[in-house]
Amino acid sequence: ASTITLGDKEQHDNKETVASGGGAAAGGEKEKEVVSYWGVPQSKVVKEDGTQWKWNCFRPWETYQADLSIDLKKHHVPKTFLDKFAYWTVKSLRLPTDIFFQRRYGCRAMMLETVAAVPGMVGGMLLHCKSLRRFEHSGGWIKALLEEAENERMHLMTFMEVAKPKWYERALVFTVQGIFFNAYFLAYLASPKLAHRITGYLEEEAIHSYTEFLKELDKGNIENVKAPAIAIDYWRLPADSTLRDVVMVVRADEAHHRDVNHFASDIHYQGLELKDSPAPIGYH
Amino acid sequence: ASTITLGDKEQHDNKETVASGGGAAAGGEKEKEVVSYWGVPQSKVVKEDGTQWKWNCFRPWETYQADLSIDLKKHHVPKTFLDKFAYWTVKSLRLPTDIFFQRRYGCRAMMLETVAAVPGMVGGMLLHCKSLRRFEHSGGWIKALLEEAENERMHLMTFMEVAKPKWYERALVFTVQGIFFNAYFLAYLASPKLAHRITGYLEEEAIHSYTEFLKELDKGNIENVKAPAIAIDYWRLPADSTLRDVVMVVRADEAHHRDVNHFASDIHYQGLELKDSPAPIGYH
Ligand SMILES: [Fe+2]
Ligand SMILES: [Fe+2]
Ligand SMILES: [Fe+2]
Ligand SMILES: [Fe+2]
Fold this sequence. Notes:
homodimer, mainly alpha, 8 helices, globular
């Protein structure tokens, strides 16, 4: 984006230059360059092909290579009371969701990703605070969980390009986030074992719902549009990829989250803490 | 660490192998390999010299190259009421801190880093939730603030190796974190402009306190011991580095945080949101 300097402005006794970018960049990220006293530079990243990197939210080295060979059918059979509680909690959330969205899988994906990005953030934040409080290493789990949250948020940024939220959907997300964030926060404080198991089962449902999405795409009930630009850069997809390719890699991500969260719960089941077992960083 | 397989164990109808590492690795990270049904691999990273990478909390590509040329004297002159409120809040916290720690700068550094890692996490988490709720890009600020939190946590992991917390210090950290986390959370919700300004001033105080630390080291009042192994790997310091070298790079980090947080506050002062100005990711 070309940059037009709006003029110099004296502020706080220090010279500050405010420059405003020439309109919105791709993906809804507005480019306004604020050159301040603090001289904090914007990191300009160039793509392999010499063009400027468009995304501020992820860099070329933070992109994903989807592993489509991951087993989509793996399931944790609930045995203990805690497992069954986690399983039925998730199952009981499924019914109202199915009724609300029916076959609108694009909309469903977008809405559910706003919820899916919560557990990783809550877990990462609580482990961070715990590490500080106890003067203890985290074994990389803070990073692993925050990575998961960021990956889920990128799912949302992708589906946003395909389905636009309506005002009442925005209102719903607002309410659901308020409830889910707090519920998951309390669950994680009370029992990380339960919290990770719940997330594991949520991911199993996510895999199922993306499989249904693919079926609808194949039947032609949902139009197989061109993949959004952000998805092509994030998952390093070929330029001519379609929505179907995007759903495939998103579903693979969900399968990875399922593994990580059931695994985290298993660690707790074995009487260990997460920090006792090095985290699978970069296991997408 | 060599790995001793403890035996196979049937669990949840699935084969799980629990293996336990041969004692604690450097830096207090215990290596217990939990091989579960979920087949989540531990990422094994090898250092340039061929030895195994010791740290689970950061990888070779996440290490820092300290920029010691950063201006340590920069200061934001408070002009508005909000700035003055932020300034005097921080200044009033300084007095009890000075009285409590006196000249024990090692201990002071360790204790204060448990607090310093909170603002980045709170800010990052709130921006993450906001991005989800509003279906908006973050301009990279979530990552930038979480990076800051992680850097502060690494300061703690470093000073932990030099000064060991006593039980009443642990109790104090517990209480202070409870108060500070919630206070900063509310401040950030009410006014990110104020919250970032407060952090900016906290960082200015941190620079001052590390400068005093250096003076005591130079006077010989504090012994200039060998740098902890974790610090040598994290900041890529020469193998014969000392505590003085570590304090130098930590102080440079604080100066970078000062810049980023005052800059973030400036963005809000200009009537913009953080997402409108791309974040300085990787600006340490
Ligand atoms: Fe997702
Ligand atoms: Fe997921
Ligand atoms: Fe620090
Ligand atoms: Fe700092």
